[in-house]
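B., you asked whether I could sanity-check this one before it goes into the benchmark set. Here's the sequence:
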Amino acid sequence: MPNLRAIETFVKALEGGSIASAARQLGITPAAASQNIARLERELGTRLITRTTRSMALTEAGERYLARVAPVLGELEKALSDLSQLHGELQGRLRIACMAAFGRHVLAPLLPAFAERHPKLSLELLNVDRQVDVLKEDVDISVRYRDVLEPGMAVRPLVEVPRRLYASPAYLQAHGRPRTAEDLLQHRCLLYRREMDGRIMRWPFYSQGQRVDPQLRIATIANDIDALVEMAVAGGGLIWAGFFLVHEQVRQGRLVHVPLERAEEAEGAAEGTDASAALQFNEETLDFFACFRDRQYVPAKVRALVDYLLEALPHLPQLQLPPAPHP
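And here's what the prediction gave me:
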């Protein structure tokens, strides 16, 4: 009977697309992973994988064997996860993929306390804005905002982050304070380009209830939202950002919220005009979700992390808007 470690290496290599991926998931060297698979093939008396310098492919025997052992290995992993929860000790590695800025400003400060609760659990945080292949990269849970949710995955809402317009006091003194959405078209705007698909994140302009894209005066486009925040602090223009990105700058007075009047509230609006036809700017929220690769079964370690985040996120100061100033 082939040993379980060799079978696990074989399955992980096919799931991850390479022997190196299997080695990374199992915490062994690529040479050791290759030896495990070679040992498995010798014990079975057949070739399972055809290897080249750049790729690997299953033989017919490999396809049949994988179809039989992969579900069994999955059930064994589930059983181990359930037993660890039963005894109150989560074990193994928990790999988390997260949007880079949210991981940096929100998730990273929370993880040490979670690790303290579960000392036998090894955490790995992957902060990336690109699309993540959860199988090949062996990701247990992915944290994404609504616009870039990964297709085919089960999701659970985590938190709604306030998202507002901000500028530095120096910028507003030099360029004036916009009062309406129409005024924004005359101001320098700092826009974020998503690394995942190369699209510029649309600002929330509306007219007659429909999302619209008016011509903005673009000062800078960047694929790093933290860099845009620093540009805003330096007086480079207006930024539309989640509060967790700017909370420290707001606290220090280096950035201020720029509230806009709705068209029907603006002074001097022409009597009898249709306010709904005017340009509106709805600040909206940035909604984050936990994404799982298996809809039917969520491992105990993943459930524990989600429960912890739901408990901790509402109390984070970087997610709490400061009190509105007195008029």
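One thing to flag: The domain at 92-160+286-319 is CATH 3.40.190.10 (D-Maltodextrin-Binding Protein; domain 2). Otherwise nothing jumped out at me.
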